[in-house]
Amino acid sequence: MDESLTDVLAEYELAARSKLTQAAFDYIAAGAGDELSLEESRAAWRRYRIRPRVFRGVEGADLSTEVLGTELAMPLLVAPTAYHIVAHSEGEVETARGVSAAGGLMVVTTRATRVMEEIAAELHGPWWYQVYVVSDRRLTESLVRRAAGLGARALMLTVDLPYTGFKRRGHVAPVSGEQHLVNFGTHVTPGATLEEITAAMRQDESIGFETIAWLRDLTGLPVLVKGVLRGDDAVACLDAGAASVVVSNHGGRQLDRAIAPAVALSEVVEAVGGRAPVLVDGGIVSGTDVFVALALGASATMVGRPVVWGLAASGADGVRRVLDGYRNELDHAMGLAGVGAIGDFTRDLVV
Ligand SMILES: Cc1cc2nc3c(=O)[nH]c(=O)nc-3n(C[C@H](O)[C@H](O)[C@H](O)COP(=O)(O)O)c2cc1C
Fold it and tell me: How many structural domains is the chain composed of?
């Protein structure tokens, strides 16, 4: 390992601050309300300490794993984040180049600002699609079928955003109606007015557990439910047909004071009891954070802002360097802690 991810992320965030408009920077950086959940999500990982094992002969730890039939080079995914056009002129296409260069897996958001076809063309490995269910279900249906047709291997249904959580800074994303519409455009009724389109694209606040099976049955792809912070909800999601849950508080951007994912993870892992993989995101900023998450029972982790800072500061190369940073730090920590493979993580590795 020849550099610290902490230093890389600090450098990229600083560069993003000087390159982007204040509105763009704030949109990416902000958390909801007083940003308690934002701060705590990061701090909560750092409270854990590792209990390393010795004499395990771990030269060259194996970071590869598999989640829901998708092979991963490392247990770290690029979380779905909206509107990459605010960070880079090439938007998600540039992100996809960086992810491919790092051999990573990108979860492409419903709110991408480049057309899905162009993003998919730059993704040389498997990718997943994130779903927001909008009030005109036919729009969601068309988008999901289109993503499946382009090769998406799983659907991540985000359920913690019936509407957007209030933010004191960066509440409104600095994107135009056109940029927002780029993927929806082809699916709306020709001749529809902007008002009609906006109404059709509004989040469907009425979604319920039955939405999981509805979504799964559209394409047969496995559905992960993102935004679960309680064991009982996780079990209810699996009972309703989910293949997995993602423990997440949306990067502290929705309900302020929502529990930190690092704290909620253990309860969810215990409630799920090995029935399904559990993923987690929020405030994961180092390889040792990933290590802690895996020890607590996560099958894989996701990162949001760090990738966007890399994109803003240095395009595809920035994205690649960030992802390589996580990989190198996780590899380093696994070696020093005597963990040779992802399957060797156990709960007793952390306190
Ligand atoms: C700028 C920004 C945009 C986001 N957009 C989406 C989105 O479109 N869909 C979604 O499910 N989550 C979205 N999220 C939440 C992320 O998927 C993820 O849960 C969160 O960023 C993880 O926290 P981290 O940024 O500390 O890594 C967004 C987060 C950020 C920072």
Answer: 1
